[in-house]
Structure formats: structure tokens, C-alpha cells
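re: ur question from yesterday

yeah so i grabbed the chain u mentioned. its 165 aa long if i counted rite. heres the sequnce exactly as i have it in my notes:
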Amino acid sequence: DIWVANLDGSELTQLTDDGTAKSNLQWTIDGSGINYISGKCVYSVKLADKQKEIITCFNFAEYFKSYEISPNGEQIAISIDNQLYILPNDLNLIRSISVRGDLTKNAPCPDFAPYLRNFVKFPRWSSDSNSLAMVIMGVASGIGSADTIQVIPVTSIIRDSRRQS
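ran it thru and got these C-alpha cells back, copy pasting raw so excuse formatting
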């Protein structure tokens, strides 16, 4: 379950009590709650009233590992079945996705619809929303597969694709 507290440990508050596994916790852009993944769904829980809301579910996915909102709030990086998709941070759009093709159709840039250069497990936005650091499945000499980190610029690519459309 999700708990929050001040840095000194005071005011410990339990936000969820459903006992389900949760991952990929991230503060909401406005700091009023926490987004997280449970199963194949993204949830949000508010700090003020502990209200839990389903943002969306990706029931077509075999693996759903990451849902990362960029710090500027404009884009979302999603890792589904080890493929990275970058979509606009539009709640109505995200909630309308019901099949994998919807991810591709709604991505503003073909390079991220999906990103196919590597299998992406966990993307993390830079503080300026211009780059993504990604845990990718790589190959290490002598040991076989290994997780590696790759950093790629994304803002200029997405901006350029918007001009072309």
C-alpha cells in the first residue's frame, strides 16, 4: 500500500489499503496526489481525501511497466510489452485507448509509435522534459543479456513531427 510522510517521518498517512501490488509511483504534476500502476491499470490517489481513481487500463498488454508524465505535463512515456510509446498527456485520449493500434495512431511522432530501436523497460524524463533516460534490454559481452541505460533527446523530434502534420 501507499503511505506518505514528512521527511522527518512525522504525519505518516496511509493513502491506500487494498493490498494490491503497486509500482511506478509518481507525483501528479500539481503535487496533489500520486499516480501508480497496479496490474494493467494506472490509478491516481489524492492526498487530501484519499480518493482513488482509475486513469486508464491497458488490458491488451502482456506487460505494462511504466507510465511516466513529463515534468512539463505535456507528454506521457508508456512502456507496454517492452515497447516505448510517447503520447500527449490528454486524459480523454489516454482513456480512449482500447487496442495497441490506438497507441500508434495517437502518437505525435512515428519514431515513438513505438520506439523500436531497443526493448524499453523503464523510461524516466529529464527535469526539463527534453530527454528520456531508459532502462533497456541490452547485450553485454560475455554475460548475454543485461539492462543498460540509454539517454535520448525527444523534444526536438516530437516538435518537428508536429510541424509536419
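noticed a couple things. The mean pLDDT is 88. also The longest helix spans residues 155-164.
anyway ttyl
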